[in-house]
Amino acid sequence: MTLQHNNHIRHIRNERLETIKKDYRGNKTIKGRFANGDEIYYPASSDVLRWQLSKNPQRNEKKRDNYVPPVHEGSEFINSDKDMIVWLGHCSFFIRLGGITFLTDPVLYDVPLLPRRAGLPCPPEHLRNIDFLLLSHGHRDHLDKKTIKTVFESNPQLKALAPLRAGDILRNINPHLPYQEAGWYQKFDLVPGEVEVYFMPASHWYRRGLLDMNKVLWGSFVIKTPALSLYFAGDSAMGQHFEEIEDLLGPMDVCLMPVGAYKPAFLMAKSHMNPHEAVKGYNLLRGGTFIPMHYGTFDLSDEPPGEPVRLLQQIAAGGMLQGLKIPAIGEPVLLQELS
């Protein structure tokens, strides 16, 4: 790791990995906390309190909205040899690309204080043949201890690809789980064959305990093969990184984009995107297929659960979103069939 001192400012990266952005010194930390560019961000406690004490203007609409993502039951996708994407709810995807199988941000149980609203296509322990975990950041609705334990028990070959300083979390879950940490603009070197995996920027923050605010990095992933580029956004606010990712790695054939937990905007706008912002990011990536995530599975915010889907359908009908695909949980999206 590289550390550069300047009034408590350091730049950190994994020196063993390739950095694809020219002259990039590494992720900036200020007094040990990671930043979005030059800004240390996390939700102010006053804004959280304001949210808790305020009345949701859509409270009655949300109460009437009984939308839950549909579930396509079955586990046939696990043993298939076809390249595909299978949504498992929230930001968890089963992805097979170039013969390598990935599981993104695996959260397949209830989260503390957050019961899961949507079902699963099969029990978590049935998920097998997983080669890599892709972990965008350490929030508990993206990195779940129980899920990772279960998946590793069923997949002893599993390795984790994770952000800088996430290793302590993973060692605490299971000290035998191999992992590699990367900073932004770095290429992991554990993936075999012609499949390349890059850790790229996101505009977000981290907290898992009482005193660890922004102590672990956050980001997004790009998976590339000679035939296809796939972008997994993790959690992110709108930012200039979408244009930069396209500039460095080219257009994204498939974009897995977060579209929920955006109200109230005074609290959420620097953490998450609303559907219009997600579509803007997708267009900056010159995306092909748009698959939404981060909606419907957990109740995280003020908007009604079905609102993100309705807004995406309206945007698509208006011609601003050409490649919208909204699969059911457990429904395989075969990559060879995408235009």
UniProtKB/TrEMBL annotation:
The record's annotation in Gene3D superfamilies points to: Ribonuclease Z/Hydroxyacylglutathione hydrolase-like (3.60.15.10)
* InterPro entries xrefs: Metallo-B-lactamas (IPR001279), RibonucZ/Hydroxyglut_hydro (IPR036866)
Q: Name one GO cellular component term.
A: cytoplasm
Q: Which residues form the Metallo-beta-lactamase domain?
A: 102-295
Q: By what name is this protein known? A: Metallo-beta-lactamase domain-containing protein
Originating species? Pontibacter diazotrophicus
